[in-house]
Structure formats: C-alpha cells, structure tokens
Amino acid sequence: MSNIHHPSRRRFLQGVAAAGTAAALASSPNRALALQSPNERPVFATIGLRNQGWGITQKSTGLADFVALADVDSNVLGENVEKLKNKQGKAPDAYKDYRKVLDRKDIDAVMIATPDHWHTKISVEAMYAGKDVYCEKPLTLTIDEGKLIEKVVKETGRVFQVGTMQRSESSQRFLQAIALIRDGRIGTVKKVTCGINGMVGSPVIPVTEVPKELDWELWLGPAPKVDYRALPEMRTGYGGGVPLYSNCHYAFRNWHEYSGGKLTDWGAHHVDIACWALGATDTGPSKVTPLSYDLPVEYKDGYPVVNDQYNAATKFKIGVAMPNDVEMIITSEGDNGILFEGTKGRFFVNRGKIAGKPVEDLKENPLPEGAIEKVYGGPISKNHTANFIEGMQSRKQPISDVWSHNRMLEICHLSNISMRLGRELNWDADKREIVGDAQANAFLSRENRKGYEINM
After folding, report:
1. What's the CATH architecture for 9-167?
2. pTM, full prediction
C-alpha cells in the first residue's frame, strides 16, 4: 500500500496521555466531537459503495452530512458520488484509498460496507483515528477478529454499530417475536430453527483480465494474492452489473477467503435474533454438529484443493447445543426465517410475516403495554442509523453492539469450521476456544497478507 499516514494505537495512546483518559475517550484525537447538541448533524463518510454501501448511505442522508466516499472500483465510486450529489445537493470528495478518509479531521463516523475480509482492518484503524463506526454484517471473517474489535472499542471508547438491521427495522416483527417469548406465550423454548437458504456452486471460473476500473490488488487487500477470475455471464437483479460467477464483487460471499457463505450472510441476521430471544447474547453454544452438508469442491485438512470454483457450503443442516438445553438448527432447507418452538406452542417470523397461534391469540390477549419497547431497551429508533447517531450523542453503545454480534457470529463461524473439517466441535464459551482440537482452533484466526496487516 502507498506510504500515507496510518492511524495507530500508539498515536491514540499518545493522545490519551496528552489529553487525559476521560477527555480522550469522549472525543476524537483529531478533533472535538462534532455532536455537541442533539440538533447538530454528524459528518459521515462511506467506505465500500456497491449495493449495501449505497443502501445505508442513501438511507442516512436525512440524518447526517456525507463529505467523502471511498471505493476501489472507479466506476462504482464515480456513480455513487454523482448519486449522492443529486441527493444531498453537494458532491462528496472521492477516494480510492480508505486511509485518506481516516486522515480527515472533519469526519465523525465512517460507514463500512466493503467485502467482509476488509471489515476488521478498516474498523480498527478507524477507531484509532477517532471515528465512530457503523460496519455492515458479518462484522468479521474469524472469531479472533471479533475479540480484537471488542478490545479496541473498549480501549478507544468509540461507538460501534453493526449493520444487523433486523434489530430495529423489518416492521418490528422480530421485536414482537422476542416479546412473545419473554412474555411466556410459547412456554419454555425448546427448539429454534433458523432457515437461511442455501446457495449454488459454480462452474470452473477461469483467470481473466482485471476490469480497468478495478484496483484488484487493493480489493484483495488482507486476503491472499490470487488471480482475478470471472465468466462473461452477468448477474441481473439485486447486485447486477457484475459477472455472475467471479471471485470478486457480489460473488465474494461464496468464497471462504473473503466471507462465510450463507452462514455469515443470512445467518448473521437470523441467528442474531434467535440468540437475542433466547437471552444468549453474552454466552455461546457448547457444541456445534454438522448433521448434513454439501461442499461444492473437495477439501483437505479444512482447505479447498482447487481455487477456481466457489468453496462455501451449498446445503447444510447444523445442530447447535445452546444454554438451557435449547436445540438450535441452522438449515438451508425450508422457509427463510426463524421458527420458535416451546412447551406451549410455536410461531414463525421473517421479514414478511409473523404467524402461528400465539400470534393469532394477540387479538384477544395482547402483549403488555411497552413490551416491545422493553425488548429494544427504550423508545424504538426510526431506523438503524438513527440508533447509531443516538449512541454517538449519548456515548452509549447502540442496539447492535459488537459484543452481542460477535457471540452470535461465533456460532456461524464454528458452523463453517465444522463443515470444513467434517466433525463436531465442542466449544468453551468462557475461554472462546474449541475444546481439545488444535487443528480446529487454527481456524479461529487468519494472517493478513504482508503489507495489509492491521495497523496497531
């Protein structure tokens, strides 16, 4: 990477020593926090703009002023600069290198929507640069990355929102589901099934020329250096305009080098709600068992033996032993959503509906007044960004905090490790390590490519 300023832990701690701990944690090392009153609009920037990056940006323009955008694809960057100019009446500055955003002293917070393998490096460096952070889910590529982010949040005092928007949006169906469980409407929960869809494998994807608008070296970043691969057929619909089969852009979710397949894509949504409902957001499972699964390529010692096809699981059924003898099933079969089953009944919830007899019974026996707000922890924010900004103002962590997210995501990461190795894993939730399995524990972390280490 080019030799420009790197925010760092050393620089942050020098600021703490100079300003005093309390003052340093209350404001950025670079500037006083802009949010001096609830009526003052924060200054934001977005790093990573394709699809969800633009989605969270355009939804937030009514709440914040965006002064900068960054993306390694010049076409995507240019298109989004123009769209944002039209939406907010002023063009943001444009950068290929995200570090130039972090160097800006006028920016309060960054929204990160890069591919997953970049999340941790940018998040950590942003916090040391004095920025609050909104980062898309899944927050990490490994369990140890989650531990690092928790450490830096605590050390810097930054506010950090994870983009698991089901916690505050989707017409409050998921909050209602949790309220039903807490009010005992299905008795004691015995089983929860998270349907998160499967995926399809790919044909062999050949090495081809890198698109001229894409900085492939910078897109790879912390991931291993490999050739760009793509087939000519283009993706349509959501995420369209890019090759249907590639090792980049929308398809990155299908490669363990950059993401975790459906387990960390939809799993990061539904497993999160399931854990919240079970009161397991600060604990973890005791065992993860791959009951059945299909990997699209051959694996040896947990690694794919070929590098020219998608390698994340296409079909799966994972058994998870949760606290209080609750059985969790994560499956690619059936409806996308969550089925809660208890000693007195069951119901199903997803983004489009909440259904079952306990829901029907609400007509005659509604939930207690304020039950949904009690789940949320107070008045419900109008959207996920509003909750983030409220946290910036109060200096309290928002509804999708890093600790609850990481505990939930550990289940998804362990599920992938169990399939890659083809065996059951016993998990020590206190030590946050796999019991008696050195090979499996090696998958809890990864080494960033030289030149792209996390700058501490």
Report:
1. 3-Layer(aba) Sandwich (3.40)
2. 0.93
